[in-house]
Amino acid sequence: MRILGITIPDNKRLEIGLTAIFGIGRETAKKILTETKVEFGAHPGDLTPEQEAEIRKEIESRKVEGDLKRLVAGNIKRLKDIKTYRGMRHAKRLPARGQRTKTNSRTVRGNVRKTMGSGRRKVEKT
Which of 63-67, 73-77, 82-86 has the lowest mean pLDDT? Predict the structure, then answer.
């Protein structure tokens, strides 16, 4: 089963498989299945063509995939343009939501090899 160019895995339950689409999580998948009256334990192969079309129509009515990615990118660009604190953190590729950076987000900052020492120096033997 393909929706919006994404293949829904056949070996997973539909509730889990729909999360392969960007913008659909577990809760949204459950809502979609209840609105289309499809049982929760169903697999994509078990659906009738009418049920598939109904699910496809319900998903296409929501903001998912490309539209959602464009919306998020536009929001981040707006924050950068008005030079908010969050926008500047995004521009510098640093955490924007108050996380610490002393010990975490080291790979993003590019100093993986520079780890924090214990504070003790090696004593030279004379």
Answer: 63-67
